[in-house]
Amino acid sequence: MRSDPGHRQRKLVAIMMDLVLGTHNAKKLVELRMMLPSQHITLTSLAEIPAAIDVDETGQTFAENAAIKATQQALHLKRWVLAEDSGLSVDALDGQPGVYSARYAGTHGDDEANNEKLLRELADTPTDRRGAQFNCHLCLSDPEGNVRLQASGICRGRIAFSRSGIAGFGYDPLFIIPEYHRTFGELDLAVKRAISHRSRGLRQLIPSLVSIAQQT
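That's the dITP/XTP pyrophosphatase sequence above. Prediction below.
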């Protein structure tokens, strides 16, 4: 019996999942697109969806904020939404800036000001006390606003005394990966994709995401 190319194409389309990434951050979109299996999942950012809403991040933890962003956006759009909340926790600052990482200096998304404030706060802190970690919590919501999957990832490092490198975003130019003796701002994206907090969290979700994609 001859195979039916059209049937194979219809089967392929049937297992594709149209997933919304709950962020306007273009660099996060690129990072996650590189890690997700494109044969099963298409990823769209909020910047590409005019009907998307702004969700207030009122949670006290990364997990709470990720769930809020995923479920509220999913309910509004009636689509599957993968949201993440991530940030930097500095040991010498008792875990700050934490969930306030993006607005540490007052204005949301002002990387320059956030980095400047962090350097000021740590100005008198010696190298052995500049330990820190990037945190990420991911949450998948179905179109009815039900949390279907969650995962977390961390990446340990330390804070430099000055910026180095222009790659990445946020605190990347200040975050040194001890094994490489370089900041995320200096490392190739492929390396960051392998070791970052975001990639470590996402890798936990991928098998279940593919399974859900095959069922939708």
